[in-house]
Amino acid sequence: MKNKPFNLFLIVLVTVVSLWSLWPTWRDYSLSKQLDSFASGEDSLKFSLSHRDELENVRKKSLKLGLDLKGGMHLVMEVDQVDLFEQKAWNKDARFHAIMQRVRQKAATSDAGVIDLIAAEFRKENIRLSRYFYDIRNSDREITGKLQKESEDALTRAREIIRNRIDQYGVAEPVITTQGTRRIIIELAGISDENRVRNLLKGTAKLEFKLLREPEVLLRVLDKLNTSLAARSVMSPNVAAQDTAHKAVPAAGTLLSSPAKSAATGRPLYDALTILQNGNVYVSQDSREFVARLFQRADIQALIPQDSELLLAAKPDQLQDGRNYYPVFLVRKTAELTGGVITEAKASFSAEGAQPEVLMEMNSEGTAKWARITGANIGKRVAIVLDGAVYSAPVVQSKIPNGNSVINGIESVEEAKDLEIVLKAGALPAPVRIMEERTVGPSLGADYIRAGMISLMWGFIAVSVFMLLYYRTAGVAADVALVLNILVVLSVLAGFNASLSLPGIAGIVLTMGMAVDANVLIYERIREELDEGKSIVSAVTAGYDKAFSSILDSHVTTLASAYLLYTFGIGPIQGFAVTLMIGTAASLFTAIVVTREIFNFMLSKNMLTEKSFG
Q1: For residues 251 and 161, which has the higher predicted lDDT (pLDDT)?
Q2: At 72, is the secondary structure helix, strand, or coil?
């Protein structure tokens, strides 16, 4: 029996490609071991610097470990559909806001759909949905269908935006799936900075450019709010606990209203504010949360001019007393420009003093609007607002015709990079909240790796020993094919940047059983042919030919089952299905092609006889 050159070439090619694909994984492992072996921090730093490029390169191409093996974060996030539908409504009034507030409260404690809750509340109030949504000619049923479509689109868009943010952050093989109509399941392996990831995922990235109102208008609004609060005896919760000496004048200028005097004269809002003679208003870090909640209250917002809103700065200023104070701004409610016109964002440093900032470029539409806005408001301040917080409020010095702008007031390079990521990925259609979070530590991952490798090793030993004892010389061919089978599975995972998880290891163990099962079918057929008195060459040929259909049927059905698991499953089930599909395809190749070529070689060297099959 002659060897087929193509089959030999194919086996050699598969083996070489598999080893080449797994080489970065081996190199990553060996370099990491060498790095860990250095006791001296200086030696470790020198080694890391000398091999930095190689380490970065091999880690990009090496086999990735899943969340259960490497550790990381599991998050369940929910799209705020109430906020989404509030954005879609028009002609909003106090009655509408009251209805939506009740819907929000019920949605927080119920699994019912938000659209169903909205429809029920509107029926209870005997109001048609068309009063606030879409066209007056639409029926409630039509509007409900449109809102349902908006909800599905928002969930899909939120998933893709979150995926884009994570991809730019650099997490390998994140698992991102949707659950129901509101929730997104996220698994991120190998995450070290958990707070940074939380902020990256939760940020809506709603960027707006808004004009500031004049300082005297801000003071009149604050006086109006303070008078209203004083009439109802609403006091800041931390006034009594704050030392009046601790709230001295924080910056050059004369206080128009000191906190101590405010408490004595019944001016509750000013208990939490520091107002300078130049009109700048600040809130201390201790009082920031109280003031932020106060500004969001419906009764307080009703006292603010309808075309304006009160916002706080995203970052504090450190004044002369060494404490942090957040500026308070009164801005136009309608944005002059939104982040939809941003085409490029890049983290950088300011020219003056190495402060992190983000440079933005606009499309042609945004460039034209920005030129018109800046040209018409020279000498005025424009607030750059991101997710409801003012990052900076520069004075317009001149007309800006090139569509460039800058966000500053950023504390660190990491924050600038994260801001770049969210601006590039786009704004979420609605806010998202983290409903559930689990963190898998690296020690737990190490235990899982150890348990998984032990199960894989014992499975391989048990199968290999059985084949050698039961089929003797023929068992060697099956064991060689089994090794190549595992090699192919791991190399494909590494080559496509897929992750190996604990269910994936289970899939490999199951694949080993399927691989030898195909060999058992062939070997038993060969035994039957030998019992009928055929020669070893004829028996081998007949055994492969007659067993082929049964092997093909079993592998095709397994592939179909694995594909369905991958299509309809989530998370761990998909990890199991991926390795099972790869292993099944590899098993078909090794059982039909590899073992037959090994037998051909053995026959050519007279190493295979009737007794070789036990």
Answers
A1: 161
A2: strand
